[in-house]
Amino acid sequence: DPETARVAMLAGADFVVGPVVNTDVIRMCKRYGKIVIPGAFTPTEILAAWQSGADVVKVFPATKLGPSFIKDVRGPLPQVRLTPTGGVDISNMGEFLKAGAAFVGVGTAMVNRKLVAEGKWDELAELASAYVAAARAARAS
């Protein structure tokens, strides 16, 4: 909601990511000059988010739609920056990037709860480095 977004920005957040297209949240973020990334599932929702001022539109759940969805949406809407989230991991992120995603959102596949709980920061750093290398390789191909 817009008030939660405002509180987060006043606390120092540089961007706000949301699960759905909420035009009030988008307007609030723009008022504070912050990046806003609302979530969408259909082309209609994606376009509505973009036309409302989204900087990037989060496509969720991306693995239900696949990389071809990103490519298909960007065909008629090449100006819209998309980021797939939900089920994205090191095995499929390259295909999403090659399909035209601006970047990918990775959650528990990279931030392994067990490693966090055990304080295995070196292993988490290695995992993050592997993701960066995979993204660079996908962009280079």
Can you tag this structure with a few keywords?
mainly alpha, single chain, TIM Barrel, 141 residues, two-stranded parallel sheet, three-stranded parallel β-sheet, 8 helices
Side by side, the strands of the main sheet go: 3-4-5
CATH architectural arrangement of the domain at 60-140: Alpha-Beta Barrel
- The CATH class of the domain at 60-140, by name, is Alpha Beta
CATH superfamily of the domain at 60-140: Aldolase class I
Outline the biggest β-sheet: 3 strands, parallel
What share of the residues lie within helices? 40-55%
Could you tell me how far the N terminus lies from the C terminus, measured between alpha carbons in angstroms? 40 Å
Low-confidence stretches: none
- Summing up helix and strand content along with how strands pair, one would put the structural category as mainly alpha
Structure description:
The chain has 141 residues and is mainly alpha-helical. The protein has a domain at 60-140: TIM Barrel (Alpha-Beta Barrel). The protein is built from 8 helices and 5 strands, in the order αβαββαβααβααα. It has helices at 2-10, 23-31, 43-51, 62-65, 67-74, 93-98, 113-117, 121-140, and strands spanning 15-17, 35-37, 39-40, 57-59, 82-84. It has a 3-stranded parallel beta sheet, covered by helices on one side. A two-stranded parallel sheet has the order 1-2. Helix 2 (23-31) links the parallel strand 1 and strand 2 (35-37). Helix 1 packs parallel to helix 2 (23-31). It is globular and about 40 Å long. The mean pLDDT is 96.
